Amino acid sequence: MTKKSVIEDRLEKAARNLLLHCGGFSPGSEILILHEDPALGWYDEALPKTVARQAERLGLKPKCVMVGAPSELLDPVTAELSERYGNVIYFARIGDQDRFAEVQPGKTKIMCYLRNAEMLASDFATVDHGAMQSLKRAVDQVLLNARRIEITCPLGSRIEGAPADVTPGESAEVSIRRFPLGVPQPLDARGFGGRVALARYLTPTGSKAYEPAFLKLETPVFAQIEAGRIVSFSGDAAAVDPVQRHYDHVSGLFAIDPAAVHSWHAGIHPGCSYGWAAEDNPDRWSNTVFNNPRVLHFHTCGAYAPGEICWMLLDPSVHVDGTALWEQGRLRPERFPQTQASLDEWPVLQRLIDNPSMRIGV
Question: Concatenated DSSP letters for 216-228?
Fold first, then answer.
C-alpha cells in the first residue's frame, strides 16, 4: 500500500469513526457541518471537506457552512441553521461555547477538537470512539469512588481532597458529544485544597469570548486553594500582580466569582498530538492538548462549568488512594481493575497506552 493510500485509509477510518461510532448517523441523515474560517488559524479547510466527502459515501446528507470566530451572540443565520438541523458537527469554537447547554431530544451535536486533516489521520481520531468511551467510564469509576486523591506536578503543585458524593454523569458533564473523547468527568473542586503552580499561560476555557484571551506568565505563580476557592496568589510580585488583574478583568466582564475553582480533570487520550508551539497561539494550544495525559487542567473564575480561566498543569501525577493513575504525565490504567477491564475489552487501548504521543507544543 502506498503512503498516499495509507493516509487516505486512515482519513476514511477516522471520518467513519466520527460519523458512525460517535454520531450514530444512518443513511439519509442530514448533517450540518459548521466549520470555522481557516484564516482564523484554528481549523484547516481540508478537515470538514474530508468528513463531508465521507459522509456522502455513507449515504448521509451533509451541508457545510463556514462560520467566524466566537462572540457572545451567535449570528442569526448560524443560529437558525443550528436550530433547523437535528445533527450538527462543529469544526468551530462556537460549539464549545454551548457544550453545557441542554440538547433537545432527537438532536445530536458533536464538538471536534481536531484542527486539521493530519490530526484526523492520527491515532487521536482513528482509535475507536467506543474504546475511548469505555476508558472514560472506567476512569470515572476509579476517581468517583476514591477516598483520597493527591495531585502533584514537577513545578511544586500539591492538592489533596476527595470527590463530591455524585454518580457518573451528574457533575459538570458536557451535553454535546466530544470527538475525539479525551477527558473523564470533571471532579468538583470543592473537596480539594492545597497549592497549584500556575505556569506558562492562563488561558480561556472556551466558554466565553474575551480579550486578551490569555496571560503569559514569565515566572510561576502559586495559587492557594481551600474548599474549591482561591485564597491567595503568591510568588514574585511582578508575576502575581498581572494574574490578579487578569482575574479582576475577566470576572468583571461577566460579573462572576473570581475566587471560584469549579472542577478539574486530566487527559486520557495518549493519541493527542500537537504539532505547533504553544506560544504560537496559547488559546488554541490549551484547548487542544487538554486531551493528552500530560496535561491536567482546572476550571476557575466562575462558580459554574467550566468557569472562564484554565490552569494547565504539565506532567501531573494523580494518586488515587495511594496508587498513581497518572504518573508524571503517563496514564497507568493497568493499576486499577476497572481500567484494566477496559484494556482487556479493547486491545487497541493497550497499544495506545504503550505508545503515547509526547508532543504537546512545549
Answer: EEEEEEEEEEETT
SS (H, E, C) the chain: CCHHHHHHHHHHHHHHHHHHHHCCCCCCCEEEEEEECHHHCCCCCHHHHHHHHHHHHCCCEEEEEEECCCCCCCCHHHHHHHHHCCEEEEECCHHHHCCCCCCCCCCEEEEECCCCHHHHCCHHHHCCHHHHHHHHHHHHHHHHCCCCEEEECCCCCEEEECCCCCCCCCCCCCCCEEECCCCCCCEEHHHEEEEEEEEEEEEECCCCCCCCCCEEEEEEEEEEEECCEEEEEECCHHHHHHHHHHHHHHHHHHCCCCCEEEEEEECCCCCCCECCCHHHCHHHHHHHHCCCCCEEEEEECCCCCCCCEEEEEECCEEEECCEEEEECCEECHHHCHHHHHHHHHCHHHHHHHHCCCCCECC
Residue ranges of domains in the chain: 3-126, 129-354
How many other C-beta atoms can be found within 10 angstroms of the C-beta atom of residue 325?
A: 24
Binned at pLDDT 50, 70 and 90, residue 80 comes out as: confident
| 199 contact partners, CB below 8 Å, separation of at least 6 | 155, 217, 220, 221, 312, 314
- What pLDDT sits at residue 86? 85
CB atoms near residue 189 (< 10 Å): 25
Q: Which CATH entry fits the domain spanning 3-126: 3.40.50, 2.130.10, 2.30.30, 3.30.450?
A: 3.40.50
Q: How far apart are CA 333 and CA 82, in angstroms?
A: 38
pLDDT digits (tens, 9 = 90+) for 164-190: 765 444 445 657 899 999 999 999 999
**pTM, 2 dp:** 0.93
